[in-house]
Design goal:
Radius of gyration: 52 Å
CATH topology of the domain at 128-257: Barwin-like endoglucanases
Mean pLDDT: 82
Low-confidence stretches: 1-14, 16-24, 26-38, 40-45, 48-55
Strand content: 15-25%
Shape: globular
Largest sheet: 7 strands, mixed
CATH class of the domain at 128-257: Mainly Beta
Number of strands: 9
Number of helices: 7
Length: 259
């Protein structure tokens, strides 16, 4: 009768032991244990898994890939500079219209009536002289000139030609031999229309006292064909003060219009 009294208690203790054994033998985890990840679980996550510490870009993408549109975004001040050389006539003609004439201070030529001074800015007023061939083939003879070169033709005309014939055939000549030398070559530029012509200096003049000093400008006397070419068929005298730039060039330079 004594053992039967304790049988219910023994049954409870035995059942409790089974429950504890089940927990120790790998039974259900506690709520806290269910949230814990097994060792190595983070290492097994795929690269694009949420929360991936590598970011959203593929692992093999370059960190700073170049922008394909970067070239079009370059600043304006990074443009390639213009290396085109300046136009020589533009450079020559700077100040052409506004520079004052520089008339000769002295008349120191061989005869005392011309000057050897070359103006500092190379700017001259201009006029024409001499004989030339007209469109009908006849020779116009300048009533104010004997059509004989003071320097001689310098081999530019046949010795069989008269003075007027030589000038009509040669065409491209000027005076101012006392400034540039007998037989020298000068390039004459009209900056307004950009025309240029090369002339041989074969005569003396103009008169320093009655022309250049009176007009307040150095004057280049040139042939009629040269005047017509530079000024598009028009004729001018020294007092008109039509400007040209005169430069001495090598003696081998071809005469006539510069193309």
């Amino acid at each position: 009768m004594g053992w039967s009294r304790w049988l219910p208690l023994v049954s409870v203790i035995a059942g409790l032991g089974c429950t504890i054994g089940a927990v120790d033998d790998g039974g259900p985890l506690s709520p806290a244990s269910e949230d814990a990840a097994p060792d190595g679980a983070l290492d097994a996550l795929p690269p694009d898994a949420p929360g991936d510490v590598q970011g959203d870009a593929p692992a093999d993408a370059p960190a700073d890939a170049p922008d394909p549109d970067a070239a079009t975004d370059a600043p304006a001040d990074g443009a390639t500079p213009d290396t085109t050389p300046p136009d020589p006539i533009d450079e020559l003609c700077k100040g052409f219209a506004t520079s004052p004439f520089d008339p000769p201070a002295v008349c120191d030529g061989p005869s005392g009536t011309t000057s050897t001074e070359i103006p500092s800015n190379d700017i001259y007023s201009t006029s024409w002289f001499g004989c030339y061939r007209k469109s009908d083939g006849t020779i116009y003879k300048d009533p104010y000139d004997n059509c004989e070169f003071a320097c001689g033709p310098k081999g530019l005309c046949s010795s069989s030609l008269s003075g007027p014939e030589c000038q009509a055939e040669l065409q491209w000549f000027a005076a101012d031999a006392d400034r540039y030398g007998c037989g020298a070559r000068v390039r004459v530029t009209n900056c307004v229309n950009r025309k240029q012509v090369v002339l041989a200096t074969l005569d003396r003049g103009p008169n320093c006292k009655t022309v250049e000093k009176a007009y307040g400008a150095p004057v280049l006397d040139m042939s009629h064909p040269a005047m017509a070419y530079l000024f598009d068929g028009k004729e001018y005298g020294g007092s008109d003060k039509k400007r040209v730039i005169v430069e001495k060039v090598p003696a081998t330079t071809a005469l006539g219009p510069v193309k």
